[in-house]
Amino acid sequence: MNTVIQTKNLLAMAKPSKVKLSTADKVYYSIVYSVIIFLTILVLYPLIFVVSSSFSSGQAVTSGRVVLWPVEFSVESYKRVYEYKVIWTGYRNTIFYTLVGTLWNVSMTACAAFALSRPKLPGRSWLMFLFAFTMLFNGGLIPNFLLIRDLGLYNSPWVLIIPGAISVYNMIITRTFFQNSIPAELNEAAVVDGCSDFRYFFAILLPLSKAVLSVITLYYAVGHWNSYFSAMIYLNTRNYWPLQLFLREILINNQFSAEMLTTMTDEEIQKLQGMSDLLKYAFIVVATVPILMVYPFIQKYFAKGVMIGSIKG
Amino acid sequence: MKNDNLMLTKPSGAVYWRRLWLRICRHWQVYVFLFLPVAFILLFHYYPMTGIQLAFKQFDFKKGIWGSPWVGWVQFDKFFNSRMFSRVVKNTLRISVYEIFAGFPIPIVFALLLNSFRHERLKKSVQTITYMPHFISVIVLVGMLFQILNSRSGLYGTIVHYLTGNYPKDILGSAKAFTHIYVWSGIWQHFGWGSIIYLAALTGVSPELHESAQIDGASRFQRVIHIDIPTLLPTAIIMLILRAGQVMSIGFEKVYLMQNTLNMINSEVISTYVYKIGLTATIPDYSYATSIGLFNSVINLVLIIFVNQLAKRVGDTSLW
After folding, report:
1. Which residues of A touch B191 (CB under 8 A)?
2. Are both B48 and B128 inside the same structural domain?
3. Cβ–Cβ below 8 Å for B27 and A118
4. Spatial distance between the Cα atoms of B187 and A103, rounded to a whole number of angstroms
5. Which end of chain A has the lower number of beta carbons within 10 A, N or C?
6. Could you say which of B132, B221, B278 has the minimum Cβ distance to residue A24?
């Protein structure tokens, strides 16, 4: 009986393509493939368009001659972006906020998740409620703003790092992973061998949890890299601004600072209109590529990470 | 800490308390792990909740939150009677409901289709590409929208000019177009990412189910209808509940960037209005902003509890 099923399975696995498709299946598959390919192109096209525009000449961009590939290829825009000093200030700050902030987030989250994953911890459900309730209700913008001001964090770079220590959603993902993917026997054996909770956490639990730790690291890092709201309401000093706030000036509010214009000759200022579009495309690329570079490396963990998040703990 | 363990009720008096104390002592290291996180939750999440009293007070800069005089429901009366009330509530609801109707089914359909893909390599590339926009920041996304939808130099202008010979009207400044642009750009950005959870659920289907259906002569489409869709249903219900519970909360970040004086009639939502009243107005009104925010938070809380109750009854699924 068993062998029969096994051979069937093997046959099915070995030659899926040789099975002749029925007409209904042929129709179905052609619809599937065309819809999926259409959607993929729909997603990809604006991205390619932006990159191609950034490598074209200003004139080609403004006159709408860029369709798919760069027209009158040039790296002029990137030279200008490179000369635009505030971008580097923004880059420096964002890298600092992302590195330090993510480290802080991940350590806090892992600590909380570990504690709340201990099955026999007294007060566990009460503590869990304490965390989870913050997802449903909060004090709102003004009370938070006043707290930050009273704590003296207003206009301090630390305001982008300290207050957002834990995202409860990520904490629950991590906790669920600790509970479901790490065998409970491991902890029991460690306890029998006289291993302390500290040592268990650092020497056993963390090394086994690379999958979930990579996923939440990515979530936090992307969050830091992309967010602008806290910076906008709490930071006045331009020197502390993250990249996104400078991008907002350029892309949304359409402001180039005078600093930029002084590096241009009169003739070039006339071309500013064309240049301005071109620069925007280049800024978009420069600001987005670093974070997109990270993600394929962690992609294999996504399904896992999102899946455990969906299981309630 | 001790009191809530009463819920576990094994009331044998002093013995119980002694055992509990021993258990707490045995776990002291675990409580060390919890110390900082709990301190942060209390300071940055629970302490601001005491600031909600501002909604019932008239904030006085000199006296602070606790010293300001109580005024009762005055702020709420003011909001309910202002002409902005119906505007921001309607806008918030319109955008949200549109987003649910248009945006909710797409990742599910996408996952179903992608799941029946027979080329693994191609499937992987499709996934990589469609997840990518999710990582683009709102500022960059809105920047891209502004560039591409520009009615002169953008792709939109170019295409319309090519087809009709004339440049179109500015759609970024059009109140009518705002909701559509907001919702569909969001779908463009997140539908691939949103499909992950459904794809993961689909990989949980046992292959034997498909095989036996195949032997019985079921076409691929019939298998989608009778195997794949029922598999997705519980996940889909949970996701829909989560989403419906947030129907009154629209993220500040993207709406705010897309706003301009021309589309404000349709683009002012509760969160952006609170921000303007409380922080950027010439005379910021902390109390008024807090009361509008509280109005919104309470509705959100009630909604999520309600939909969760509903799900428990209908689908036997619950968030907690």
Report:
1. 39
2. no
3. yes
4. 31
5. N
6. B221
Return the percent helix, strand and coil in chain A, to nearest 5: 75, 0, 25
- CB-CB under 8 Å, B289 with A141: yes
Query: Do B80 and B50 share a structural domain?
Result: no
Distance CA A126, CA A144 (A): 24
Rounded distance between C-alpha atoms, residue B6 and residue A184, angstroms: 26
Domain that holds residue B26: 3-56
In-domain check, residue B249: yes
Question: For residue A11, what pLDDT is reported?
Answer: 46
Number of domains in chain B: 2
Q: Is ipTM over 0.90?
A: no
B289/A139 Cβ within 8 A: no
Nearest-neighbour CA in chain A from B83: distance (Å)? 22
pLDDT digits (tens, 9 = 90+) for A3-41: 444 444 444 444 455 567 788 888 888 899 999 999 999
Give the CATH number for residue B141.
Answer: 1.10.3720.10
Residue with tokens 């797409």: B106
Question: Minimal Cα–Cα distance from A262 to chain B, Å?
Answer: 25
The label of the residue with tokens 């570990």 reads A114
Q: Is residue B66 part of a domain?
A: no
For residue B14, name the pLDDT band (cuts at 50, 70, 90): confident
What band does B90 get if pLDDT is binned at 50, 70 and 90?
very high
Residue B61 located in a structural domain: no
Asked if the structure places residue B63 within a domain, the reply is: no
Kindly report, residue by residue over B214-270, the tens digit of the pLDDT: 888 888 888 888 888 988 888 888 788 778 888 888 888 899 999 988 888 888 999
Determine, for residues B126 and A312 on separate chains, whether the beta-carbon distance falls below 8 Å.
Answer: no
Residue by residue, DSSP assigns A14-72 as: H-TTTSPPPHHHHHHHHHHHHHHHHHHHHHHHHHHHHHHHHTS-HHHHHTT--SSS-SS
Low-confidence ranges of chain A (pLDDT < 50): 1-15, 257-259, 270, 311-313
Please indicate whether, in this complex, the C-beta atoms of A284 and B20 are within 8 angstroms of each other.
no
Domains of chain A with bracketed CATH = 21-76 (no CATH), 79-310 (1.10.3720.10)
In which band, very low, low, confident or very high, does the pLDDT at B205 lie, cut at 50, 70 and 90?
confident
CB contact under 8 A, B144 and A132: no
Which residues in chain B are contacts of A165 at CB distance < 8 A?
36-37, 40, 44
